[in-house]
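Lecture notes, part 5. Sequence design as translation. It can be helpful to think of inverse folding as translation between two languages: the language of shapes and the language of residues. The source text, in structure tokens, appears below.
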């Protein structure tokens, strides 16, 4: 039996790797206040328990490259703005 890879099979593998990198560029942001990259953790946010309660989970990365990342304040730093019970910004 002869095993071989077609040229198209190799090309498909490369395209999915490229697509994964593009998604990371679009979905991972950099927070200047805490010096970390972050993204919404869609895998865990989509569970039935979290969907019923409108819970959004985030993943934070301490050692992720921040070069050319869109700057956005993460949920932890944004929540630190709200300290009093009325919800007014400090």
């Amino acid at each position: 039996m002869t095993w071989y890879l077609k040229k198209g099979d190799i090309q498909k593998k490369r395209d999915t790797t490229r697509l994964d990198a593009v998604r990371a560029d679009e979905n991972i942001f950099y927070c200047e206040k805490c010096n970390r990259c972050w993204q919404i953790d869609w895998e865990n946010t989509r569970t039935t328990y979290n969907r019923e309660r409108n819970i959004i989970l985030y993943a934070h990365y301490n050692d992720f490259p921040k070069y050319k990342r869109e700057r956005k304040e993460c949920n932890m730093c944004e929540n630190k703005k709200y300290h009093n019970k009325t919800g007014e910004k400090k």
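The translated text above is only one of many valid answers, since several sequences can fold into similar shapes. Residues 7-27 form the longest helix (21 residues).
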